[in-house]
């Protein structure tokens, strides 16, 4: 996550109005679903990482096996033999979107194929309860237990220690730390759960609750994140029943929240990292402490105390995050700083139990040639930020990995670092364009990593993220239908919020000027068919809507368009450069402009309104052919520029809609949709103007929430690009 933009981790002369709706007969999706559907192969369009890796766990008794968790993109399994991550939770569908966030994971050291995941992205009232997934085959298949409590994998504290643990005394017993419901216990390998008796901390409705669980010999330690810095926040049980505060533990702001812990079985030392906030944001103080579990002696082994002054005079504030011990070398431990913006985060490594430390950042050499976006528009990549996931390979002392807000770095010699990220894609995707001509078949706009030009789908874009300027999250992306070399983009940036390209998105230049509101509320943008007019809508991340602005000189000057519905997404007619459309979701009214966006007037009214999701799409190559996708009301079509809309009866819910190349012998573009039938939400294709549909994804490829954007390739029939909220860009092709 970039520090300058709200992202997907913050908590998306007309005919008279009132034209009647008519139904268009058509076969329902459910009926079409019974027909033979094409077999599709689904893959990620490669970018590489792009999201917050919140936990990494090497298996203690299987060489080359590791697992990773993410805040919104599911869990993964690493196979060192092939150097690749395998996604483990893509089978979770639309109704289970809240389970794509992984709060915690655990492995069984004795039964080496057992894996447990605690899932739940948000703990707010509007989100569903969490769930436990249990696997006997390393995540190939799962058994699910729904919880009665909520988890929060994309909330503050998501980078703290594993909150799920197999008891070291009994492999059938599991512990689960929750944010608001205390400590839970299962005695049947996660099939059922109940509150743990005797746990002394009192749950809070707004706090962090249990932040970590770690085994130290036969004892289990639990961190507590709701303390005040003066009371106990680390508890221990040696019998699985009685919990007590660990004597002598540190207090104060620098030790307010126990973030992570790791146990060195050779020296019987427990290392604990602390901060004054759960993170990943908001930490300004922290420390590292070592507990000699045999004697109960605590020692402050903090590598560098926060609060110093950097050479440029900035205050060096930060907390401590990750901690990992070397299973092969007694007394060797690695810790990470977190939220250290002035002096930049680092890893510190000690070989003498924390008496002395070496910063691995000082000698680090990075190779990001496989994922060039990690340069963030600069000459060299940074060491990273939001470093809370950290692990040392128990079979290779020099193999260290750490997660950041955008990737997972690894080293095999403590000096040379490169992304260890193949197969792991966590992008939250907002916009997709598939150009009709040119080198690239795909241009994407995403949360956190801006806009990318994909020369190949099997490799991370060689140019990295679009620069001049660099965006964090993209808010708009549009291509002139009749002049595809012209592309525009908008988003959250430090040095401008809009840019244009005259070479199809390969290179960019910032708009010469922008409206004042653009800096705080950049929204979607459209360009007309010949690229002569820009129409920019403005929406703040908190939902506040502002008047749109128009430019007829490539962004050099802008004028307000008061008749445009505030906050609406402008849609350009793909054939007629004088036409724009917009849908007012507040009133259910279609607006149109016939003077290149100078003025807008109402056309059809009495359309669905107030729904949480709408998408207005213009069919390519046709003037006035509009499709309105409505979350809970289905699909509507107008063939007269929005004067009248007819309801398509072949589906009852439509989340997003796009077009691609027509099938052989067909005269109308293929339509792709994420939609719902009586019992399923899936990805569909229609080759006959939405009369019939075939499902093109399957139960193992669902990716949670997929309602943002879908688009077909205008040059290859059957190829479709799908935006996900945490599993990157999926593209499917018939096989």
Automatic annotation (TrEMBL):
Gene Ontology annotations of biological process type: polysaccharide catabolic process; xyloglucan metabolic process
Residues making up the signal peptide according to the UniProt record: 1-34
PROSITE patterns per the UniProt record, alphabetical: TAT
Molecular function GO labels: hydrolase activity, acting on glycosyl bonds
Annotated keywords: Carbohydrate metabolism, Glycosidase, Hydrolase, Polysaccharide degradation, Signal
Annotated transmembrane regions: none
Domain of life according to the entry: Bacteria
Record flagged with keyword DNA damage: no
PANTHER family linked to this entry: OLIGOXYLOGLUCAN-REDUCING END-SPECIFIC XYLOGLUCANASE-RELATED (PTHR43739:SF2), XYLOGLUCANASE (EUROFUNG) (PTHR43739)
Similarity field: Belongs to the glycosyl hydrolase 74 family.
Protein name per the record: Carbohydrate-binding protein
Native organism: Streptomyces spinoverrucosus
Lineage: Bacteria, Bacillati, Actinomycetota, Actinomycetes, Kitasatosporales
């Amino acid at each position: 996550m970039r520090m300058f933009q709200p992202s997907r981790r913050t908590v998306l002369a007309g005919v008279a109005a009132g034209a009647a709706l008519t139904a268009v007969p058509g076969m329902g999706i459910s009926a079409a679903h019974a027909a033979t559907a094409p077999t599709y192969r689904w893959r990620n369009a490669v970018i590489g990482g792009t999201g917050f890796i919140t936990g990494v766990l090497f298996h203690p008794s299987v060489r080359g096996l590791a697992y990773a968790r993410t805040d919104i993109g599911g869990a993964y399994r690493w196979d060192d033999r092939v150097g690749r991550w395998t996604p483990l939770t893509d089978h979770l569908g639309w109704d289970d979107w809240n389970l794509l966030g992984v709060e915690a994971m655990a492995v069984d050291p004795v039964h080496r194929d057992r894996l447990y995941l605690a899932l739940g992205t948000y703990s707010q009232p509007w989100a569903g309860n969490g769930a436990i997934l249990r696997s006997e085959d390393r995540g190939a298949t799962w058994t699910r237990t729904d919880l009665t409590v909520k988890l929060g994998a994309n909330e503050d504290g998501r980078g703290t220690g594993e909150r799920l643990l197999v008891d070291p005394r009994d492999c059938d017993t599991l512990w689960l730390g929750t944010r608001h419901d205390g400590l839970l216990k299962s005695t049947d390998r996660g099939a059922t759960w109940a509150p743990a008796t005797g746990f002394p901390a009192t749950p809070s409705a707004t706090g962090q609750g249990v932040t970590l669980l770690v085994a130290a010999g036969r004892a289990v330690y639990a961190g507590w994140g709701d303390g005040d810095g003066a009371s106990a926040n680390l508890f221990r049980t040696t019998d699985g029943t009685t919990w007590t505060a660990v004597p002598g533990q540190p207090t104060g702001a620098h030790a307010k929240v126990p973030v992570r812990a790791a146990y060195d079985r050779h020296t019987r030392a427990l290392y604990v990292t602390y901060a004054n906030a759960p993170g990943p944001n908001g930490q300004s103080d922290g420390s590292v402490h070592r507990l000699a579990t045999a004697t109960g002696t605590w020692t402050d082994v903090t590598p560098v105390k926060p609060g110093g002054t950097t050479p440029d005079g900035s205050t060096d504030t930060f907390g401590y995050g990750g901690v990992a011990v070397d299973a092969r070398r007694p007394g060797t431990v690695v810790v990470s700083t977190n939220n250290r913006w002035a002096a930049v985060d680092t890893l510190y490594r000690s070989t003498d139990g924390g008496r002395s430390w070496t910063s691995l950042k000082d000698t680090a050499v990075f190779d990001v040639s496989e994922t060039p976006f990690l340069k963030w528009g600069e000459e060299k990549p940074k060491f990273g930020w939001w470093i809370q996931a950290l692990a040392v390979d128990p079979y290779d002392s020099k193999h260290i990995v750490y997660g950041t807000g955008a990737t997972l770095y690894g080293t095999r010699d403590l000096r040379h670092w490169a992304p260890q990220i193949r197969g792991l894609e966590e992008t939250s995707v907002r916009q997709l364009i598939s150009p009709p001509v040119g080198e690239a078949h795909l241009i994407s706009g995403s949360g956190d990593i801006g806009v990318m030009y994909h020369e190949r789908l099997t490799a991370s874009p060689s140019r990295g993220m679009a620069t001049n300027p660099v965006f964090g999250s993209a808010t708009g992306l549009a291509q002139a239908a009749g002049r595809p070399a012209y592309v525009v983009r908008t988003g959250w940036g430090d040095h401008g919020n809009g840019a244009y390209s005259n070479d199809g998105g390969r290179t960019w230049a910032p708009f010469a000027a922008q409206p004042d509101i653009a800096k705080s509320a950049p929204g979607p943008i459209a360009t007309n068919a010949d690229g002569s007019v820009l129409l920019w809508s403005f929406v703040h991340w908190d939902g506040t809507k502002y008047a749109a602005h128009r430019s007829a000189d490539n962004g050099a000057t802008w004028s307000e368009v008061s008749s445009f519905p505030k906050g609406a997404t402008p849609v350009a007619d793909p054939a007629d450069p004088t036409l724009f459309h917009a849908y007012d979701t507040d009133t259910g009214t279609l607006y149109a402009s016939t003077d290149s966006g100078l003025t807008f007037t109402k056309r059809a009214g009495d359309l669905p309104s107030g729904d949480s999701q709408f998408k207005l799409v213009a069919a390519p190559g046709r003037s006035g052919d509009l499709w309105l996708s409505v979350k809970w009301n289905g699909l509507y079509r107008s063939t007269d520029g929005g004067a009248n809309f007819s309801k398509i009866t072949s589906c009852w819910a439509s989340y997003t809609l796009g077009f691609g190349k027509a099938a052989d012998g067909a005269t109308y573009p293929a339509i792709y949709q994420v939609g719902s039938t009586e019992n399923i939400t899936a990805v569909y294709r229609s080759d006959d103007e939405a009369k019939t549909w075939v499902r093109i994804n399957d139960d193992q490829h669902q990716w949670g929430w997929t309602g943002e954007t879908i688009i077909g390739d205008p040059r290859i029939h059957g190829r479709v690009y799908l935006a996900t909220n945490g599993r990157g860009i999926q593209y499917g092709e018939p096989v």
